[in-house]
Amino acid sequence: MTSMPKDLKPADFINEAAPGVEKLDVAAINRKDRRELYAVRQKIYPRLAHGTFRNVKWLVMAITLTIYYVLPWLRWDRGPNLPDQAVLLDFAHGRLFLFFIEIWPQELYYITGLLVISALGLFLVTALAGRVWCGYACPQTVWTDLMIAVERFWQGDRNARIRLDKEPWTASKIFKKVMTHLSWLVIGLATGGALVFYFRDAPTLAKELVTGTAPAIAYLFLGIFTFTTYLLGGIAREQVCIYMCPWPRIQSAMVDRHTLLVSYRADRGEPRGPLRKGQGWEGRGDCIDCKACVAVCPMGIDIRDGLQLECIQCALCIDACNEVMDKIGRPRGLIAYDTVAKQEAKAAGGGHEPVKLVRPRTILYAVLIVLVVGVMGFGLLNRTTLEVNVLHDRGVLFVPLSDGGVRNGYTVKVLNKRHEPVDVILRVEGLPGAEMRVIGHDAGPISVPADNLREVRVLVTVPPEHVKSLTPPSTNFEFIVKDVASDTEMRRDAIFQSAAARSKP
């Protein structure tokens, strides 16, 4: 054991990074030189941060959770015989209700459009400011933050949780652990319950779940969602982001030298080291190696090691560092949003490098978003309330009649998106002398029920005197569906197979 130098006092060995600033005993769990391929997970104890970005995260959490839990309970009057839930994925009737928008299975391309817009929006945000989605609005981040807040409520902040895990099992420890996990399960249950409410009328399903009369599938998914929320948000936490989520690998193609990223400004912070009482700032950097940035990191990394795959850009390290800078009287921003281009310019001793938000890739993403939104908006504004689909019989392409005529069979599907019945008149055009007969229906308009699909079987016959006018082996013509009430017509192309097709190999 070494002896204490005579010129030093015991006070010099107090665990302080600077006078009045604690030097935290914490290591970066996911530091790359400590990481093994199959390393056993080391639990991370994030410290509560205070500052602008932590407040923004609280706000985003409150807004997103409120939207998620409250949205299924919002009502929207759509008239009689229609659900009054504002947002409902009605699988039983094959429709998606989004407030005033009603999407049918035949219109799933709108869902595709929404997914494309979401992806492009994520690309744009990532190109501008890195993984801000991951750090603030990702469900994994939101629920993990909530779970950590609950854990902190029952067990205390970082140091208290570390001490609790090292203590032997006592009544107090058992109580705190049990209450923590029970709270997580309640959150998981509320999360799973809210999710199943999106698929069926929320008040009705809630009553059925309580009384035990809900469908078995509802209980199954409720259990699955409860367990996954508990496991991913309460237990796995950062493991999901590091090992399960593909986005950290994809984002490397989205960022460039001008992307704003949470960065440690080494040109200002180095050389780092503890600040002794009475010591000046000459010949040293502003970083006092207090490791407050490491202690608050939910991913267990040290931002001072540079850009890392594990960093979710939550910016809590900025809050922690700014708080320390305030205590030691140094300017804020030792850790801040910065670009690689600006840091390289500083390291080279060059001039000021401006932040370039408008760049070819950001312009491209923005233009694509506007384009897709425009196409979807145009489609929604010009969508029809009637849709017609014509299918030719596949088993028998044509039937030669004894009198020399030819007959083809078709299935005509008329989708009525209105909330009241619609009468339509069906006819054909483009076949000389053609006769049309709807099986099971007498002459007159065909009634299509409200919010429903009417499927009719149609036989089209060309008499013998007109068979020679057909174009072998098939002739193009049109089915015309006329709305009696609005006098509008919809045309659908069809093909009439003739007897001349026999000669085709």
Instruction: Please state the oligomeric state of the protein chains shown.
Output: single chain
Beta-strand content bin: 15-25%
- The level 1 CATH classification of the domain at 386-503 is Mainly Beta
Most strands sheet: 5 strands, antiparallel
Helix-strand category: alpha+beta
CATH-assigned homologous superfamily of the domain at 386-503: Immunoglobulins
**If you consult CATH, what is the topology of the domain at 386-503?**
Immunoglobulin-like
Number of H- or I-type helical stretches: 16
The backbone outline, from C-alpha atoms, is: elongated
Overall pLDDT confidence: 88
What is the CA-based Rg, rounded? 34 Å
Unreliably modeled segments: 1-5, 501-505
Instruction: Please tally the β strands and state the result.
Output: 16
Please give the alpha-carbon distance between the first and last residues: 99 Å
What can be said about this structure in brief?
The protein is of the alpha+beta class and 505 residues long. The chain is 39% helix and 18% strand.
Please provide a written account of the structure.
This protein is an alpha+beta fold and 505 residues long. It has a domain at 386-503: Immunoglobulin-like (Sandwich), CATH 2.60.40. The protein is 39% helix and 18% strand. It is built from 16 helices and 16 strands. The chain has helices spanning 52-70, 109-129, 132-137, 139-155, 158-166, 171-197, 202-211, 216-236, 238-244, 247-250, 266-269, 292-295, 316-328, 340-347, 360-381, 464-467, and strands at residues 16-18, 21-22, 87-90, 95-98, 101-103, 261-264, 335-338, 386-392, 399-400, 406-416, 422-429, 435-438, 446-448, 452-462, 474-483, 489-497. Strands 8, 9, 10, 12 and 14 form a 5-stranded antiparallel β-sheet that branches. Strand 1 (16-18) and strand 2 form a beta hairpin. Helix 1 (52-70) crosses helix 4 and helix 4 (139-155) packs antiparallel against helix 6 (171-197). Mean pLDDT is 88; it is low at 1-5 and 501-505.
